[in-house]
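seq as requested:
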Amino acid sequence: MDRNDSLNMKPAEIRAAFEDPHWAAEFPPVLSVDQAALLIQVPKATIYEWSSRKLLRGCARKVGKHLRIFRDRFLAQIANEGIQRNGK
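struct tokens:
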């Protein structure tokens, strides 16, 4: 077992983080770029860059001109896999 496996977030842990009504309202299941950036404390330009480099596959989708991010999938990717740069 990789020693980093113990740091992986399980789906139940992600769901539990948003059981509080305040956090559920602040960060709904489908996030805007602003909300996603605030959630993981990065500039929103970073979210757009990751999207343009196709590093958010499986957790983000364009809706018209807007990028929407699936909160739980996004957090699982960030926490468990990280953002893989340069196709690695």
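The first helix runs from residue 11 to 17.
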